[in-house]
Design a protein that fits this description.
The complex is a heterodimer of chains A (277) and B (293). With 277 residues, chain A is an alpha/beta fold. Chain A contains 9 helices and 10 strands. Chain B is built from 9 helices and 9 strands. Chain B has 2 domains: 108 residues, ATPase, nucleotide binding domain (Nucleotidyltransferase, domain 5, 2-Layer Sandwich), CATH 3.30.420.40; 141 residues, ATPase, nucleotide binding domain (Nucleotidyltransferase, domain 5). Classes of the chains: A alpha/beta (277), B alpha/beta (293).
Chain lengths: 277, 293
Amino acid sequence: MITAGVDVGTRYVKVCVVRDGRILGADVRELAGVFGDVVRASENAALDEAGLLGVQVRRKAVTGFGAAAAARLVRRAPHFLSREVPVLDEGVCAARAVTELVPGARTVIDAGALFVRSLALTPDGRITDRAVTEKCAAGSGRFLEMIAASLRVPQEEVSDVVATAANPYRMSNSCAVFAESEVISRVNLGVPGPDLLAGILVAIAEKALTLATRAEAAPPVVVVGGLGHMPSFLRVLGDVLGQQVSVVPMDPQLAAAYGAALLAAEPVVARTRSRGA
Amino acid sequence: MIYAGVDVGSLTAKAVLLRDGRVAAWHVEPVSATPGESARRVLEAALEKAQARRDDLTRVCATGYGRHEMTFADLERSEISCHGLGTFTSNPVVRSVIDIGGQDCKVVVLDDAGLVDDFAMNDKCAAGTGRTLELLARTLGVSLGELGPRALRARRALPVSNKCSIFMELDVMQWMHQGRRAEDIARGITASVARRVAALAGKVTLRPGVCISGGVSKNAAVVRELELALGVRFVPLAHDPQIMGALGAACFARLEHERAREHDRRVLRASDPVSSVDAAATPDCAGCTGGAP
């Protein structure tokens, strides 16, 4: 059966088209401009990559921060025969992707744009505990993005730049907005950019550690979400957690969309609505 | 006699000159170069306005974030103390001060002499400070000065999170995606900032005679929301709310000078044989039967 998972995050829309656990087509695009247009364009791009028509997708599921709004659009997509589009919890989707690709994983750390989430799994993949940032964007990908932008370092170069850091700089502000001003004043005082970025990665990793401890993380630890793209983040996170961490063997940013597509194919779909958590 | 107060914050430097208990001159300018240099410049500018010279200054008190770098100052006081005494001087009925600046938010409760009795402060999280208003005005595509007037024209307040500036930005973006009116979003933003400040004020017991100061006090929508949330009407201040810290510092310079003069007078009296005899003899005179030499 061909299914699609749509993950509408706070910064990006991710779509995954899947048949029997295999990804046929996928798309990641920035959520800028008209919401509906971006979601539709992303869906079409993933279908094109799979070489499929909308009518061939039997079931769909949506997840992510903007899932509720996206569900209405996805349901009304042309040639989509089933009018049912469940809204799934992001944590459940991320865990499903991990259990499919890394059987036996016990902890999932989902480091996305705005929310950082830690999930504890049983050996057979059920979620037993979870913790998520809900009050503050300190330690989120958006935090890193803001600081990288104020240092004029493109996202894709952050990891390499951090690798050259000699002394990670410890921010005195944990608030992302204040840290941005602190970074500017530190740059003026001559603190090297790589040290500042490395300091931010340490702060994010420490946030993940706090969450993982709260959710009683056990090894092996698997990372999903956009920050999984950064080898430097994985290294810092491994140091902070004191154990080896691996990234899910696929584009980590697509993991929740992939999990949603897998769950859409399963007969009983948990219909949890969530906002953030 | 002229007393000077200099307040160097994170964004602006302020100087106030106090002559005969009145504000003789004041000056505000953006912080440039080092805090010490900014302080010197703003003080010179205020002196020029008052047509006075550096030698005319009796005492100078420094406050604010850059106060440790003002080597020329005679004394230093914390921003909290200076804000308290400054607003109290500007309007003697003030007993509680809510100061919302660019980087922090303070709630100060005063005693009947204008000195600090209790306070609460947030300088850890940008939500509930001017920085958030600046960030969200930019997101909404209006100038900071326009945000308040726009919010006042709203038909309703769209809910906006008050937990974190970044979350607030996200809510604002979602409302914008849905094509909601900028006025209603602006109202949601100002209400959210006011809720956050009201929560901080809830940590202390406010005394009647509440005033608002700091840059955000210029945003009429935040001020109105906050009055509603706290159930008070803010008392007015006689001077620009931005100079309260510097005014308080100048008052501390005067207090310090008067205290020192009083001390000198006592020392002088103790070392002067005639007045010390007088001082020592006077109380005893009550029971004197007239046998004095």
